[in-house]
Amino acid sequence: MAKQQKQRPQPVSKKAAPAPARRSDKRERLFNTDGNDVLIFGRKNFILMGAGFLLILLGLAAMSGGAMPDPNKWEPERIYSPIRITLAPLMMVAGFIVIVLGIFKRSDGSASGDNAEAAS
Asked: Is 58 exposed, middle or buried (0-12, 13-18, 19+ CB in 10 A)?
């Protein structure tokens, strides 16, 4: 007589964990290539950021000024002129403010605007 092999009990399979929830389409819509929302920033945002960058460059240029005509003669009115001391830093600060406004301004085709239309 042949011996019968003992059958091993099959391990009880645990249920697989559910798949993680999919991220909302709101964030993915900003990078969508099939619609008009290819970029996060719109045209007006880029214009504002470019104008702010130009203001910063103009402020730096105004702050640098020109060289002394005679290296042996000290002219404090050239170094401490109101343009270099007051106007140039104000232009640079205004440039940074314009860049921040350009970043935070909502573009025309923003995702939140699409949600408002979908809700109504």
From this structure: middle
Tens of pLDDT, residue by residue over 32-81, are: 555 555 778 888 999 999 999 999 999 999 999 777 888 888 888 888 88
Could you give the C-alpha distances from 17 to 13, 24, 91, in angstroms and in order? Answer: 12, 20, 58
Domain ranges of the chain: 36-66+76-109
CA dist 120 and 111 (Å) reads: 15
Q: Angle 88-104/43-64 helices, nearest 10 degrees?
A: 170
Contact 84, 65 (CB under 8 A): yes
Pairwise CA distance, residues 90 & 39, whole Å: 31
